[in-house]
From TrEMBL:
PANTHER family given in the database record: 3-HYDROXYISOBUTYRATE DEHYDROGENASE, MITOCHONDRIAL, 3-HYDROXYISOBUTYRATE DEHYDROGENASE-RELATED
Keyword Ion transport: no
Documented EC number(s): 1.1.1.31
All copies of domain 3-hydroxyisobutyrate dehydrogenase-like NAD-binding, residue ranges: 104-223
InterPro entries referenced in this protein's UniProt entry, alphabetically: 6-PGluconate_DH-like_C_sf (IPR008927), 6PGD_dom2 (IPR013328), 6PGDH_NADP-bd (IPR006115), HIBADH-like_NADP-bd (IPR029154), HIBADH-related (IPR015815), NAD(P)-bd_dom_sf (IPR036291)
Protein name stated in the entry: 3-hydroxyisobutyrate dehydrogenase
Sorted UniProt keywords: Branched-chain amino acid catabolism, NAD, Oxidoreductase
Annotated 6-phosphogluconate dehydrogenase NADP-binding domain residues: 1-101
Record organism: Teratosphaeria nubilosa
Similarity-based family: Belongs to the HIBADH-related family. 3-hydroxyisobutyrate dehydrogenase subfamily.
Classification of source organism: Eukaryota, Fungi, Dikarya, Ascomycota, Pezizomycotina
Length: 258
């Protein structure tokens, strides 16, 4: 897994790239977070070397799921038979494997995933700062969101576990999220979707990144918000378990019969 498409291309086709040493028909699986358009172009170049490219960017149902082979893979492949041949390997990497379509579709889904995640992160940073200023307790705010309509991946996992505890150790870098939002901007322009939100999110998170370590975890965005506002968010000393009944209650409602 490499950080971005430029590094993937360099590793494969650069001056000391490995493509020239691979056997014809070799399947290359790209699990990076890259531009779908760059991925399509890379696939064409690798085809000139008789190599097959599959993209399988990763998302997760919980942070560090990749460490246990429990990721969610968003796969793009131009050839069904190549996907089927690689499928056993993919399924050792993830609990959920979705064939999104031809090459480029996996990274398109990845940028949409990270766009939605970034939206919730920015909203939470704003909210806990404003809420604490007003007198609300940040941990209690998350507790309410997790049994309300504001629940999302950030409230359930990294913001709850890594931002409010100020451990900042989710394993996903803030700089990578800023990079990914640049891909989202490109994707929206390509599809002629008129929206300013990806650029705004990227600007907010870039500003936060400028206030923390360049290698900081994405949950350290909260620290950037703290430095800007002059407010130190109350630290959660111990992460509480989410009660099983909260999920069972939600499932009963979500699976209700109309």
């Amino acid at each position: 897994m490499l950080p971005n498409g430029k590094i993937v291309k360099e590793a494969l086709l650069g001056e000391i790239g490995i493509a020239r040493a691979l056997k014809p028909g070799t399947i290359i699986i790209d699990t990076s977070s890259s531009s779908p358009f760059d991925t399509i172009a890379l696939g064409k170049k690798l085809a000139q070397h008789s190599l097959e490219l599959i993209e399988a960017p990763i998302t997760q149902t919980y942070m560090h799921a990749t460490d246990h082979g429990e990721s969610t893979l968003m796969v793009g492949s131009d050839k069904k038979e190549v996907y089927e041949k690689a499928s056993p390997v993919l399924r050792t990497m993830g609990s959920y494997v979705f064939l999104m379509g031809p090459l480029g579709h996996g990274h398109a889904m990845k940028t949409i995933n990270n766009y939605v995640m970034a939206s919730s992160l920015v909203a939470l940073c704003d909210s806990v700062i404003a809420g604490q200023k007003y007198g609300l307790d940040p941990q209690q705010m998350i507790d309410v969101l997790n049994v309300g309509t504001g629940v999302n991946f950030q409230t359930l996992d990294p913001f709850r576990r890594d931002a409010l505890t100020k451990r900042y150790s989710s394993g996903f870098g803030l700089a990578l999220l800023v990079k990914d939002l640049g891909i989202t901007q490109e994707f929206m322009v390509h599809n002629k979707v008129e929206t300013e939100l990806p650029g705004l999110l990227r600007a907010y998170l870039s500003e936060a990144l400028g206030r923390v370590d360049p290698m900081a975890d994405h949950t350290a965005a909260l620290e950037g918000w703290e430095k800007k506002s002059g407010i130190s968010v109350k630290r959660t000393e111990k992460v509480k378990d989410i009660p099983r009944e909260d999920f069972e209650h939600r499932l009963r409602g979500l699976n209700r019969k109309e």
